[in-house]
UniProtKB/TrEMBL annotation:
Annotated ranges, domain Lipid/polyisoprenoid-binding YceI-like: 24-194
Coiled coil: none
Name the UniProt record assigns to this protein: Polyisoprenoid-binding protein
Signal among keywords: yes
Keywords linked to the UniProt accession: Signal
Signal peptide region: 1-22
Signal in keyword set: yes
Organism of derivation: Corallococcus terminator
């Protein structure tokens, strides 16, 4: 039995994968960062950041739950504004960046969580350990064109993890009770991405500011 052209087109449309409606965005490392905060001596919060955040976001505006994200963070760029502490954090006591130079996140599920908000579940790999975490995401923002003709979108994601879950267990007990470094770590990702140009399109100028 022959299928009519109209029926064939309808079947293809139904069977077409959702990514046909997705657009690909590349993270802009110069305008993206990963920050963290952890308790010190149980009395204050030490904050730091990683730079050189790279990755790809596929955004399906027709069905945002079919969107995906993959990011890679350069663990060697850790910066807490104290060189000696940063060297300690890079050592085998903590991140052991010589052995594990990157931190990665790969989404496994995206769910709506209100207007312009998402919950993104994914695999976080750090210090050679992979655990599922949930990011609370504000965004993605609407498209905006920069002065160089690039289309940009942004988002902010937050989560909390226990560093001990990733094998980061170094600590020192305090005489007054408790430990020098808290176990709970608050993470904030500030992400800005540019729309990937079509292969046939001429590349737009990059913003270096």
């Amino acid at each position: 039995m022959k299928m009519s052209l109209k029926s064939a087109i309808a079947l293809i449309a139904v069977a077409a994968p959702s990514f046909a409606f997705a657009t690909t965005w590349e993270l802009d490392s110069s305008h993206s960062s990963a920050q963290f905060g952890v308790k010190h001596m149980m009395v204050s919060t030490v904050r730091g950041a990683f730079s050189n955040v790279k990755g790809t976001i596929n955004i399906d505006d027709k069905d945002i739950t079919k969107s995906t994200i993959e990011t890679t963070i350069d663990a060697t760029t850790i910066n807490t504004n104290e060189p000696k502490r940063d060297e300690h954090l890079k050592s085998p006591d903590f991140f052991d960046t010589a052995k594990f130079p990157t931190i990665t996140f790969k989404s496994t599920k995206v769910a709506k969580a209100g207007a312009s908000k998402l919950k993104v579940t994914g695999d976080l790999t750090m210090h050679g350990v992979t655990k599922s975490v949930v990011l609370d995401v504000d965004g993605p923002s609407a498209e905006a064109k920069d002065p160089w003709g690039n289309l940009r979108r942004g988002a902010t994601a937050t989560t909390k993890i226990k560093r001990s879950d990733f094998g980061l267990t170094w600590n020192k007990a305090l005489e007054t009770g408790g430990f020098a470094v808290g176990d709970e770590v608050t993470i904030t990702l500030d992400l800005e991405a540019t729309k990937k140009a079509d292969a046939a399109a001429a590349p737009a100028a990059k913003d270096t500011k």
